């Protein structure tokens, strides 16, 4: 990834602190239970995708693209705390095919785009636009990976993207502990593959000494 | 596609006439030979991707994404006459992984972003931003198709996108003649599959009466 991608595919970048502060100070805080659909074209969703910008303060969200594929209706990327979603809406790019849901119990802060634009100075609005565009580039890279790499390659890229999302520079670290435990089912959604493929790959990598798992984390040996 | 996608995946939308006029009046006209790389990270390219906006007046361009995959290094979408590329650059989204090349002898008009912005009124700049965002949505849909559909589905979607790009409303047409002949190799790049797969599929569809081919066109029966 360091070699190929400038972004961390499947894991959008962190929001700058200045923008986080705006959400925490002015946004509406909502606690979301696991599996609740927060936003998007789903009858159980709290909001439409063009209604709210959503900042995640704690927990874990998933951003699922509708694929119109019978067997695998969604392709998912994950949203770690400190990120903002509905960036396509902020950029006024059509995002009606997305759904945002809580993969864990999460705390979010929401604001409308016009609320955000109304209270922020030009330099912070520019910062927001830059953030949203970086998130789009990350999505492009993830999609590119999705259709060009086989599942083991994709999974390796995804774990590297995760590692790079938690640490500034992993190049000198002999091992990286990712403080997040995803289920095999969640990984299969993110990789858009079957659970069986994940069940085959991860134990194999564990027995080969590439990874190990703890109660609440995953360790990657390099 | 009418059913699932609001865009025509793999085939970006046409530039509004008002914007075409700006390129034709103020742009620099260049004739490009087949296979010349026009723009992007390639040593034979005429320009970098952040140097020029490129309007295609006649011919056929290809927009190739670098995939970092050894066997299939590019995934391609086609650019029909009347379109403008380097829209990611206009939106200031990183597009360093793309290459734009001529698939046929083509005439293009080029301008820099600052040249375009310097001579156009706000409403036309807004029109340009809307155009570029629509092109991004088309790319998202194409990528989504690429990793979720099998090759026959992808190829059917692609032919439908082509048909919808040449005609305003194909819903009432018993057959659609696409005035463009793509080689099996070109189709394999666009579908990111092997030539063999295309060689297997298209003759089969022809014998089943779904399509027929003329010297310079492809006919789809519905």
What does this protein structure show overall?
The structure is a homodimer of 222-residue chains. Chain A is α+β, with helices and mostly antiparallel strands and 222 residues long. Chain A has two domains: 131 residues, Jelly Rolls (Sandwich); 73 residues, Arc Repressor Mutant, subunit A (Orthogonal Bundle), CATH 1.10.10.10. In chain A, 38% of the residues lie in helices and 23% in strands. The first copy, chain A, is built from seven helices and eleven strands. In chain A, a hairpin with a 7-residue loop joins strand 4 and strand 5. The two termini of chain A are 14 Å apart. The relative contact order of chain A is 0.17. The mean pLDDT of chain A is 90. Chains A and B meet through helix 4 of A and helix 4 of B.
Question: Topology of this structure?
Answer:
Two copies of one chain form a homodimer.
Chain A: H1 17-26, E1 28-32, E2 37-40, E3 53-58, E4 61-66, E5 74-79, E6 84-85, H2 87-90, E7 98-102, E8 106-111, H3 113-119, H4 122-148, H5 151-166, E9 175-178, H6 184-191, H7 195-207, E10 211-213, E11 218-221
Antiparallel strand pairs in A: 1-8, 2-7, 3-6, 3-8, 4-5, 4-7, 9-11, 10-11
Helix pairs in contact in A: 6-7
């Amino acid at each position: 990834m360091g070699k190929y991608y400038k972004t961390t595919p499947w894991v959008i970048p962190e929001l700058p602190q200045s923008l986080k502060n705006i959400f925490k100070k002015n946004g509406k805080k909502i606690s979301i239970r696991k599996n609740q659909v927060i936003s998007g074209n789903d009858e159980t969703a709290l909001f439409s995708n063009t209604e709210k910008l959503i900042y995640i303060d704690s927990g874990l969200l998933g951003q699922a693209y509708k694929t119109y594929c019978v067997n695998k209706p969604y392709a998912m990327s994950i949203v770690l705390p400190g990120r903002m979603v509905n960036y396509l809406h902020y950029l006024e790019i059509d995002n009606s095919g997305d759904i945002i849901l809580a993969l864990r119990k999460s705390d979010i802060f929401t604001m409308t785009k016009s609320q955000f634009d109304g209270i922020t100075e030009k330099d912070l609005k520019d910062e927001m636009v830059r953030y949203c565009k970086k998130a789009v580039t990350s999505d492009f890279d993830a999609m590119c990976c999705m259709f060009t790499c086989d599942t083991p390659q994709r999974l390796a890229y995804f774990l590297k993207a995760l590692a790079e999302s938690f640490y500034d520079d992993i190049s000198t670290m002999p091992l990286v502990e990712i403080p997040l435990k995803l289920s095999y089912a969640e990984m299969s959604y993110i990789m858009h593959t079957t659970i069986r493929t994940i069940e085959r790959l991860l134990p194999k990598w564990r027995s080969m000494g590439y990874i190990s798992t703890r109660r609440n984390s995953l360790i990657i040996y390099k």
